[in-house]
Write a structure and sequence with these properties.
The chain is α+β, with helices and mostly antiparallel strands. It is 18% helix and 38% strand. The chain has 6 helices and 21 strands.
């Protein structure tokens, strides 16, 4: 008959086979109970672990019997339990996933949970990261006039909870740095779209920003700029008088840069200056309204689309000639056409009786 094994021998044998808990290591267990301020986890032969109240957000969806992965914070508390962290285990596992995702160059989908003026706060696999404004696509980049930080934040807040396709631009577990880029995620697709575009093409886009120097337009994910000089054939003082954010507009491609289109609105129509200038010739007597007065002369509107210049040299000799003493803004006066340069779109005028022989 075999010799009976004593309880002490069984415990000793089991003790040799049970791996001792180590701070920082991951463990897998089964949820034993869910209380208001704690969760108890069965770690098998390694005892029972306790997840504290400060991690309540991590076990809102847990049920008794669920298998969970946790990280050992303390091997033994006063009550005999081990102190566990679900958050740290998720984060540690998340960093492994983050690194693998970055190395693969895979495009992932994230939803920002908060925003500040510098960009969007994002969490991926339990690891919190950042999507800087500079890495947003043309569609989402907050183009605003001047440096209106409140409007920038308002535009970024509108992206909270929205699904964005991104790539991981940089990550460093030691410094807890994780940077996302929407630009990188759409890069390949943009290259293919650029190949289909050519100077002279007419394209439609959505206005994403109106600034002092022009209008930004999203053309199927490609950023375009209509410079203020390309908005209208007439003189434009304020681009916002012509378009507003959200407008769909038609433009003409006038240049293709590395990652941006140069666009024109006015070149979709004929230049009225060219049509109207043909009615004038050198020596004609014309009447016009003073539109601007500068130290070097005065600008005169001689037809709806044609503006000419009376140079200060036509007002007299000497350094004491002052155009502001000769002209008044918005007054109408008679002039003589001196010269017309179509290529440079310039017309020179003189006052009657001042024409040089």
């Amino acid at each position: 008959m075999a010799k009976a094994t004593t309880m002490d021998e069984l415990l000793a044998a089991e003790g040799d086979s049970v791996k001792q808990l180590t701070v920082g290591e991951p463990v897998v267990g089964t949820v034993l109970s869910i209380r208001k301020h704690e969760v108890l986890v069965d770690l098998g032969a390694q005892g029972v672990g306790l997840v504290p109240r400060r991690e309540v957000g991590f076990y809102r969806n847990l049920n008794i019997g669920d298998e969970v992965m946790a990280s050992i914070v303390e091997t033994e508390l006063d009550n005999g339990y081990s102190l566990l962290s679900l958050r740290k285990a998720v984060k540690d596992r998340g960093w492994d996933e983050v690194l693998a995702t970055m190395e693969s160059g895979k495009i992932i989908e994230v939803s920002p949970y908060d925003a500040n003026r510098g960009g969007l706060l994002v969490e991926y696999d339990g690891v919190r990261g950042f999507l800087p404004v500079s890495q947003l696509s043309a569609e989402h980049y907050p183009r605003v006039g001047g440096s209106d930080k409140d409007e920038i934040l308002q535009r970024l807040n509108a992206l909270i909870g929205k699904k964005l396709a991104v790539r991981i631009l940089d990550c460093d577990r030691k410094s807890n740095k994780l940077i996302f880029s929407e630009k990188e995620a759409i890069k390949d697709g943009l290259a293919a779209r650029f190949e289909k575009l050519a100077v002279g093409d007419k394209v439609k886009g959505v206005v994403t920003g109106v600034v002092d120097f022009g209008v930004f337009v999203n053309v199927e994910g490609i950023e375009g700029l209509v410079h203020i000089s390309e908005i209208s054939w007439e003189r434009v003082s304020n681009p916002s008088d012509y378009v507003k954010v959200g407008d769909t507009i038609e433009t003409k491609i006038i240049a293709i840069d590395k990652d941006r289109l140069s666009l024109s609105i006015k070149q979709l129509t004929e230049d009225p200056w060219m049509a109207e200038v043909d009615q004038f010739k050198s020596g004609d007597n014309v009447e016009g309204m003073i539109t601007r007065i500068t130290p070097f002369g005065a600008f005169v509107q001689i037809s709806p689309s044609v503006e000419a210049l009376v140079h200060v040299s036509e007002l007299g000799s000497g350094d004491d000639v002052d155009p502001e003493k000769v002209f008044t803004l918005n007054e109408r006066k008679a002039f003589v056409v001196l010269d017309i340069e179509k290529e440079s779109r310039k017309i020179s005028l003189s006052l009657p009786g001042k024409t040089k022989k």
